[in-house]
Amino acid sequence: MKVDKNECTNLKTRQNAFDHCKAILAPMKDQCMALRQCCPSYLRCAKLMMQTNISRKYNDILNRTKEIQSNCEKKIMATLKSFLLLIPKKSFIQIIIHSSFKIIPPSYSF
Fold first, then answer.
1. CA 65, CA 62: separation in Å to the nearest integer?
2. Residue 46: domain span
3. Is residue 94, in this structure, part of any structural domain at all?
4. Tens digit of pLDDT for each residue in 5-55?
5. In Å, how far from its chain's centre is CA 105?
6. Is residue 28 within 8 Å of 54, Cβ to Cβ?
7. Domain contains 28
8. Is residue 89, in this structure, part of any structural domain at all?
9. What does the pLDDT read at residue 22?
10. Helix and strand counts by DSSP (H, E) for the chain
11. CB-hemisphere CA count at 13 Å for 5?
12. pLDDT for residue 69 is more than 70
């Protein structure tokens, strides 16, 4: 399964993909909850559901989502690493020290 790199570059695109995934999965979850509440043989039914085409589609969507997330994380890490290579080591240490020691004013409550 190939991942479209463009899906990782735009926050709006990622949100749309997530919303689309939620919309597809919502009816399946509702059906499962209805079965769980009213069906005395829910476990047997659940095992049958795992073998159905819907279950395979659910797992495919879940795996696709994980793959997209993983690729996005890799892209973010590669971008951060490239920034680190651009910053001189001395400046980088100063940035870390400066961001680590923030002065937080005391809060007063009356």
1. 5
2. 6-100
3. yes
4. 555 555 566 677 777 777 888 888 888 777 677 766 766 777 776 677 777
5. 35
6. yes
7. yes
8. yes
9. 79
10. 5, 0
11. 3
12. yes
